[in-house]
Specification:
The chain is an alpha/beta fold and 271 residues long. It contains five helices and 14 strands.
């Protein structure tokens, strides 16, 4: 990557916390020209690979004035309950999209699912995936920095894009700072519903009456809007948007008991 670069660092650590600081310091140390790389950090919920994938796609498909790379990591290591020798788990993978955006993500669950259809190069990365509890600081930044420096020698086996799991269209993807729940359902998935139609939304063991709406502010205060939201570009993702006037009120996230990324939901039409 030549010239100015934009690096999104998307991790499941506390915003601006020690972990982020150590990782960004490691990146700076290993970059040939750290002043030419603009780094932006985004914190996602702990162990939430759905959020990693969702945020990766939202950044990757947005216009950028600079060449962009995304480094994401949320590795729950929950494939087995037994102790993991030398803290081993999934390694990192490399993807290049048809718009030139490069991605280095830990290959866990939903990390590449949202960008699957736009990948033109998908490879293994030769980087240690054991020997440290903090791989995202001790090992992975070196691979990211080397790629930004223009060194692709750590890219190895070509992987099959078709092996990336598809993202089901009935899961929670992301909860924003206002308690609105963004889902993996697309606007194109709700063609059989009419605007203004009442629906039943079932999520996290909670059932709530909602209204199919053009936007979250087109309904009365306290009404749950089911609408195409602000994420997803040409085919926006559906949001569960409970209009409130103060954050002391119960938002959609509160009403649905703070659903985790990947939690399934259902929308039923009411007559």
């Amino acid at each position: 990557m030549q010239g100015k670069k934009f690096l999104h660092v998307v991790l499941d650590y506390a915003p601006s916390g020690l972990e982020f600081g150590e990782i960004i310091q490691s990146l700076h140390y290993q970059l040939d020209d750290p002043d030419s790389v603009r780094i932006h950090q985004t914190s996602v919920p702990p162990l939430d690979t759905m959020a990693i994938g969702f945020v990766t796609a939202q950044y990757a498909f947005a216009p950028s004035a600079e060449k962009m790379m995304i480094y994401g990591n949320a590795a729950p290591r929950r494939d087995k309950n037994k102790a993991k020798k030398e803290n081993v788990d999934e390694g990192i993978k490399y993807a290049r999209l048809d718009n030139g955006v490069e991605i280095v993500n830990v290959n866990s669950e939903y990390a590449f699912g949202f960008v699957k259809d736009r990948i033109v190069e998908f490879r293994e990365i030769n980087s240690p995936n054991k020997g440290s509890q903090f791989r995202s600081r001790d090992f992975f930044p070196e691979a990211v920095a080397r790629l930004i420096n223009g060194d692709r020698s750590m890219l190895s086996t070509e992987l099959k894009v078709e092996d990336i799991p598809n993202i089901p269209h009935n899961l929670v993807a992301w909860t924003d700072g206002f308690g609105n729940i963004k889902t993996t359902m697309r606007k194109s998935d709700i063609k059989n519903f009419k605007m203004g139609q009442k629906v039943q939304v079932i999520l996290n063991g909670v059932s709530m009456l909602g209204v199919m709406a053009v936007g979250g502010f087109t309904v009365d205060r306290g009404v749950l809007a089911v609408n195409a939201g602000s994420s997803g570009f040409d085919d926006p993702f559906i949001e569960l948007f409970l209009r409130v006037h103060h954050m002391t009120e119960k938002t959609a996230a509160v009403r649905f008991d703070y659903p985790l990324g990947g939690t399934p939901f259902e929308i039923k039409a009411l007559k």
